[in-house]
Amino acid sequence: MAILNSTRLPILLTMLAAMLLASTQVNAQRVKDIADIEGVRGNALIGYGLVVGLNGTGDSGTSSPFTINSITALLERLGVNVRADISKMKPKNIAAVMVTSELPAFSRPGQQLDVTVSSIGDAKSLRGGTLLVTPLLGGDGNPYAVAQGGLSVGGFSAEGKGGGQTKNHPTAGTIPNGARVEKAAPYGLSPDQDRITLSLRRPDFTTAKSLQDAINRQLGEGMARAINPSTVQVWNPNSNTVELIASLEQIDVSIDHAAVVIVDERTGTIVMGQDVRIDTVAVAHGNITVSVAENPEASQPHAFGAGQTQVLDRTQVNVDEEQARLVVLPKQVSLSELVGALNAVGATPSDLMAVLQAIKAAGALHAELRTM
Questions:
Q1: Fewer CB near the terminus (10 Å): N or C of the chain?
Q2: Which residue from 117, 114, 148, 145 is spatially nearest to 131, judged by alpha carbons?
Q3: How far apart are CA 122 and CA 54, in angstroms?
């Protein structure tokens, strides 16, 4: 029997304690990262505008007539009447665009927002363009911000008579700090309300119960109550909403979630969570390759015969069935062991999807199988 060196024993015990501590905290997350405060939310903004100053890469008058109508209306508001010559306008330096942004909660007038500008016509590129003044509307139809400025486009497009080249996506761009808030959005949070409602981003009964218990341990028994898998209410006895929310956001909570396997057949991607388990099952997998070759032959008559040359079809079909390997997948206790056992089958990612679906159909896969 080997005797452990007494000088190494404290080091090993320290390492073991650290590993155990890490394993118990692996699923601990801050409340800020797993839940939202009811009444604190952003608002989507959208607007229609014009980008000018393009180098001949804007909309065409035939495919995008709304661009001509928009620039005509804009010029008339500025005192320029071009209605008589509207048929002669060629807006190759102008593009009609949609402008989108996000109005954060509690934004005040004067604050700046980033905006995204996207072409809605047949413009080839927005590179070098400038967005004219564009009101940004909320879901209620009211304007909350105004956007304007030069675009930052990460791609380009160049073409000639014989061909062209495009890099990235030149018909969409951004304007950092390109919008200014003109009106604050309404919000449903008051500084002295009697309770705070937390909404879990991923509803789960176990996580909601853990959140309730963690808050009660930190702030006092009876302070929090789980209403359903996604909602936990917290009392605000001191009528100080800001202080209570700041305290809640830093509390660590042990989260739980269902075992899920995500399968994307388009890209061959498979993602499995650490809680995926399987029962003991035997898997045999082998590929079948079928190849068809056409080798037509010409049949010619004799030199002095009266016949005609004919083309005869010659088809050769080969079927190659790979010898399948039977692998027993034992009841797994970790994701790494499960992946290692499935790799032993020798299947490619595409084949692995079929293996997982077959294991699920056999009732041996204890996880939700989602196909994207």
A1: N
A2: 148
A3: 13
pLDDT surpasses 90 at 138? yes
Query: Exposure pattern of 16-37 as b/e (b: 16+ CB <10 Å)?
Result: eeeeeeeeeeeeeeebeebbeb
Predicted confidence (pLDDT) at residue 142 exceeds the cutoff of 60: yes
For residue 130, what are the domain limits?
Answer: 43-157+167-181
* Alpha-carbon distances of 38 from 42, 195, 223, 228, 237, rounded to whole Å: 12, 10, 17, 14, 18
Q: Are residues 344 and 270 in the same domain?
A: yes
Give domain status of residue 7, yes or no: no
Q: Are residues 222 and 280 in the same domain?
A: no
- Are 285 and 243 within one domain? no
Domain count for the chain: 3
| Domain's final residue, options 117, 149, 181 | 181
- Is the pLDDT at 260 greater than 50? The verdict is yes
- For residue 204, the domain's CATH number is 3.30.70
Is 171 found in the same domain as 52? yes
Q: Retrieve residue 287's tokens.
A: 């590929």
Same domain, 209 and 291: no
Q: CA–CA separation, 233 vs 216, rounded Å?
A: 11
For residues 165 and 152, give the distance between their C-alpha atoms in angstroms, rounded to a whole number.
19
CB atoms < 10 A from the CB of 246, how many? Answer: 11
**Residue 18 falls within a domain, yes or no?**
no
Q: Considering the entire predicted model, what is its pTM? A: 0.66
pLDDT band at 311 (very low <50, low <70, confident <90, very high): confident
> 265-270: long-range contacts at Cβ-Cβ below 8 A with a sequence spacing of 24 or more?
265/350, 265/353, 265/371, 265/372, 266/372, 268/348, 268/349, 268/350, 268/353, 269/349, 270/349, 270/352, 270/353, 270/356
